[in-house]
């Protein structure tokens, strides 16, 4: 039996040396640039947390929950700005009448849409109100409604002689 120990005694286990304890880096000397934050950056504010847990307590029974967060400024007030301009009423009437001329009141609604659309465009030049696009929409739907009404009238007149011919050729009960 071979033994690797020099004296022939029982082998001794060698334990590794313990690692050295962590030492923080040395602090910079007082007055060095590390003592001051960079320009334009303020040190972070200490965050405050609510007091002990108030879970399960109902309001009015015991101490109220402490949810104050110190260190946060109030939200900025949003004000100023420009006042909103009003939309011309005749422009809205023109669009509604133009749509009604296409759907509910075929010819009359379209004429009202065209007339009020032109009136609103002339008012918009002087009043400073908004609604030019709405007035143009009313004009366009009004003119389209008038065009469709005229086209329907022409188609009806084209088929009117054929309708009379069919009616005149019907057998009579005599």
From TrEMBL:
Keyword Cell inner membrane set for record: no
Biased composition (Polar residues): 44-57
Domain of life: Bacteria
Record domain DUF4190: where: 90-151
Keyword Transmembrane helix: yes
Pfam families named in the record: DUF4190
Protein name: DUF4190 domain-containing protein
Source species of the chain: Microbacterium immunditiarum
